[in-house]
Amino acid sequence: MPSDVLAELIDSLYAPIGSLVVGWSCSILIGVIVSARTGSAWLAAITAALALIAAARGLLVVSYRSRPVGPDTDLETLRRWEWRWLLGAWVFAGTLGGLCFVCFVQVDDPVAHLLVDATTIGYTAGATTRNAGRPRIAVGQIALTLAPISLGALLHGGSAYLALAVVTGLYFVAAAEIAVYLGNRSLRHLMANREKTALAHSLAAQNLRFDAALSNMSHGLCMFDRRGRLAVSNRRMCELYGLPPGTFRPGMSVRDMLQESVAAGNHPGRSLDEMTVFFEQRLAGGMPSNSKMELAGGRTILLSQWPITDGGSVVLFEDVTERERAEARAQWLATHDELTGLPNRTLFSQTLEETIAAAQTSHQRFAVMFLDLDRFKFVNDTLGHTAGDTLLKEVAARLARCVDPADVVSRLGGDEFIVLLRRAADEEQARTVARAILAAVVAPIVVLGQECRVSVSIGVAFYPIDGLDEQTLARNADAAMYLAKDEGRSCVRMFTPAIEGRSIERLMLETSLRGALERNELVLHYQPKRRLATGAVSGAEALLRWRHPELGMLAPGRFIPLAEETGLIVPIGRWVLAQACLQSMAWQRQGLAPLRVAVNLSPRQFADESLLGDIEQALAESGLPPDLLELEITESMVMQNLARALPLLAAVRTKGIHLAIDDFGTGYSSMALVKQFPIDTIKIDRVFVRDVLTDPEDKAIAEAIVALGKALDLTIVAEGVETEAQEAFLRERACDEMQGFLFSRPLPADELAAFVGAYELSRLKALAATIAPTLRPASASRRAHRT
User: Fold this and answer.
1) Average pLDDT of the chain?
2) Pair type for strands 313-319 and 299-307
3) Which among 190, 468, 481, 643 counts the fewest CB atoms within 10 Å?
4) 290 pairs with which residues across the strands?
C-alpha cells in the first residue's frame, strides 16, 4: 500500500476527537450507573479501568494531533502510530466486553443487562465505522466486545438470553463483514482519489509545459476548429503582427484576425475581403500547405498548415524575412561581384551566350571588350587593399557611365573587366566607346586623401568575325588586351589572327618555362661595368637568358613577365643568385681579380619570406665574400611594403652585401625616401642616358641624379651607355661607373673572363706606355751621375 494512502487511513483513526470522547464517556457513564445500581465491586473496578484507558487514549490522540502524519511520513512512523491506536482500541474494547460479561454473569438485573448491552452495541457500531479504514482493528474491536456478551448470555441461561447470545453472534458476523467491506471500499476510494489527484497534477504539469512551450515558441501558432474558429494561439502570434498580447482570442474567425492585423497597418494596399477568401479556402482545403504573407516594412511571414483529425487545422507562422533576404543576397552574390555590384563572370557568360543566340537569328554584330587596369597592383600594394577596393569601385562606376544601358559591364576579378557592347557593329563604334573609357579611367581618383591615376588597356573582339562562342570571344578579346599592354598600355587594340599567334606563342612559352630549370635551358650572361675615372673593370651584372630548344636564345623581356605572373620567378631568381655567386668564385680560380657580381631581384622574389635564407645559402655554398655580391632592387619594390622592406634591406646590408637602386628616376625618386634606404649605389636608367645630349629634360634629370648620389655619398652607375659622347658627358659630371654596349654587350661567363683578362692587360700596357716617357730622363741623369 502506498505510504500516502496509509497515512490518510491512519489519520482517519485519530479524528474526529468529539465522537471518541462521546463514545468513551457513554461507556464509562453506563459502567458507573450499572455499578451503582448493582453495587458490584467488579463492575466498579472495570469502570475505573475504562476511565483510565480512555484517558490514556485521549492523551495519545492529543499527542498525535500535535504532529499528525502526512504523505511524506516514513513507513516506520506510520506503523508505530497504527500499532498505538490498535493497542488502545483493543484494550478499551476488551475491557468494555469484560464489563458486559461480568454484568451478565454476576448480576441478575435485566435493566443492567440492557444498559450494558445497548451501550456496547452502540460503541461497536461506532468503532466499526471509525476503524473501517483498517478492518483488522475494527474486527478486533467487534470481537472483543461482542464475544463476551454472547458468552455471558449463554452462561446466564434462559431462552431469552440464549436468543440474545445467538443474535449477538449473528450481529458480530454482520458487523465484521460490514467492517471489511467498508475497509475495502475506503481503500478503493482513497486509491481512486490518489490516481485522480496524480492525474490532475500530471494534467496541470502538462498544461504548464504546454503553455510554456506555446509562450516560448519562436514561431506563432494557431489552432482552428472545424468551423474555422480560433481555438488556441500563442503569444508569439501577436508579436509577429505587432499587436498587444491577447488580441487573438478563442472563437475569432479568420476575418476577425485579419481585421485586427489590417488595423495595425500590416497590409497596406491589400484587400481584407481578398485575404479572407484566400486564407479561408486554405483552411477549408484540409490539406497540408504553405503560403507567404507580405507585411509592411518588407517583412515576410511563412504560413505552414496541417489538418488535424477533428476537422480543424494547425497553422504555424514563421518570420522568414532575414532568411528570404539572405537567400536573395546569396542568389545575387552568385551572379554579381560583391565589391563593385557589377555582374560577375557567371552572369556575364550567361548574358553573352543569350546575346550570341539572339544574334544568330537576327544576324547582328556586337563587340566584346576585355579591360585590364595598368599599375593597379602598384596602387594596391602602396596604399593598401582598402584603397585598392575604393579605386575599383570608382572605376566600375565610370565604366558603367561610358556604355549604353543595354550594354553589360562585368568584373571578372582582380583588376580585370569585360564589357558586352550589343550595338557596336564595327571598329569605329567600338573605338568610340574605348576612347570614352580611356578618358574616364585615366582621370584622377582621390583615394584616402591621395590622388591616384591609373590607366586601362583594352582589347576588342567582334561577333561573328572573331569568334562564334562565348569562350572564343572572351579569349580573343583578352589576347588583344595583352597586345595593348605590350605596345605601351593605356590604349585599345582590335583582335587580328596575328594576335592569336602571339597568344599561342605566349601559352607555349609558359608551358615550356615550367620545365626550363630542370632541363638546364636557363643561362646567365654578364655585362661588365667600368670605372669612368680609371677605366678599370669594377664588376659585372648577371643577366638571364633562355636557350629555348625551338626559338633559340630568348632575351628576358620575352619570358620574365610570364615568370612573374606564374610565380616561377621565385625559383628562377633563387637559381640566378646561386649561379652568379658560383661563377664569381670560378673566375677567381681562373686567375681573374675579384669582381663584384650584381644580381637583379624581382618584385615577387623580394617579397618572398625565404629571400634572406636563399642569399645566405648562395654565399655559403659558393664561398663568395659578401662584399663581392650586389643586389639590385627598384624603388617600387621597396615602396610596396616599406615596413617590411627597410628591416630586410638593413639585414642584407649588415651582412656586408652591397645594395643598388636600379632604374632610378622611373619610380618615386625622392631624396627623403632614398635617405631611408641602406643602399650603396644608384643606377641611372637607360631612358635618361639615351637622349642625355639632345633632351634638356633628360640632361637635367641625369645631372640631378648624379648630384643626389654625390650628396648621399653613393656610387653612381649609368646604364645603356652606347656612345663616347655619352660617356664623356657622364665623366664630366663625375659619374662613377658606366655599363653599356660602348664597353661591352652581355657575354657568356667564359667569354667575359677572356674579355676582362684581355681588356685589363691592354689597359695596363697603355698605362705603362703613358708612364714610361716620364721615367726615361730620370734614368739618364742617374747614369751620368755614376760616370
Assistant:
1) 86
2) antiparallel
3) 643
4) 304
CA distances, 15 to each of 28, 113, 141, 431 (Å): 20, 31, 17, 113
pLDDT in tens, 587-601: 999 989 999 999 999
Q: How far is CA 38 from CA 30, 34, 130, 152, 164, in A?
A: 12, 6, 32, 17, 21
- Dist. CA 132–CA 176, nearest whole Å: 10
Q: By CB neighbour count within 10 A (0-12 exposed, 13-18 middle, 19+ buried), where does 273 fall?
A: exposed
| Distance between CA atoms of residues 690 and 536, nearest Å | 23
Tell me, what's the pLDDT at 673? 63
- Beta strands (DSSP E) in 571-646 are 596-600, 629-633
> How many degrees, rounded to 5, is the angle at CA 439 between CA 389 and CA 696?
105
pLDDT at 589: 93
Look at residues 580, 664, 674, 589 and name the one whose alpha carbon lies nearest to residue 628. Answer: 580
Cell triple for 33: 450507573
3-state secondary structure of 759: helix
d(CA 665, CA 685): 7
Strands 715-718 vs 681-684: parallel, antiparallel or unpaired = parallel
Nearest to 741 by CA among 726, 730, 760: 726
Triad 358, 360, 365: Cα angle to 5°: 85
* C-alpha cell belonging to residue 645: 622592406
The total number of residues written for the chain in this structure: 787
DSSP conformation class of 296: G
- Give the number of other CB atoms < 10 A from CB of residue 368: 31
User: What letter does residue 405 receive in the DSSP assignment?
Assistant: T
The answer to whether residue 787 scores a pLDDT higher than 50 is no
Q: Do residues 101 and 42 touch, judged by C-beta distance below 8 A?
A: no
Residues with Cβ within 8 Å of 647's Cβ and at least 6 positions away in sequence, in order, are none
* Sequence-separated (6 or more) residues with CB below 8 Å from residue 741: 721, 722
**Cα 516 from Cα 38, distance rounded (Å):** 144
Grid coordinates of 123: 460503541
Phi then psi for 741, rounded to 5 degrees? -65, -20
Helix (H) or strand (E) holding 561: helix 556-566
Q: In sequence order, which ranges of 299-443 are alpha helices (DSSP H)?
A: 321-335, 345-362, 376-383, 385-402, 427-442
User: What is the per-residue burial (b if ≥16 Cβ within 10 Å, else e) of 483-506?
Assistant: bbbeeeebbbbbbeeebbeebeeb
Between CA 104 and CA 111 the distance in angstroms is 11
Coil, helix or strand at residue 319: strand
Q: How far, in Å, CA of 191 to CA of 1, rounded? A: 9
Q: Residue 312: name the closest of 395, 379, 230, 225 by CA.
A: 225
Phi, psi of 321 (to 5 degrees): -60, -50
Q: Whose CA is closest to 618, among 584, 656, 588, 579?
A: 579
What pLDDT is stored for residue 513 in this prediction?
83
Average pLDDT on 747-772 reads 86
d(CA 446, CA 383): 12
- The Cα–Cα gap between 622 and 517 comes to 19
DSSP 264-277: TT-STT--HHHHHH
CA 275/CA 267 separation, integer angstroms:
10
**From CA 683, how far away is CA 413, in angstroms rounded?**
36
For residue 322, give Cα distances in angstroms to 293, 319, 325: 14, 8, 5
Tell me if 562 sits within 8 A of 510, measured CB to CB.
yes
The DSSP secondary-structure symbol of 416 reads: E
Residue 450 has pLDDT above 90, yes or no: no
Q: Name the DSSP letter for residue 628.
A: G
d(CA 121, CA 54): 18
Q: For residue 533, which amino acid is it?
A: A
DSSP bridge pairs for 783: none
Tell me the backbone φ, ψ of residue 174, rounded to 5 degrees: -65, -45
Q: How far is CA 118 from the centre of its chain?
A: 93
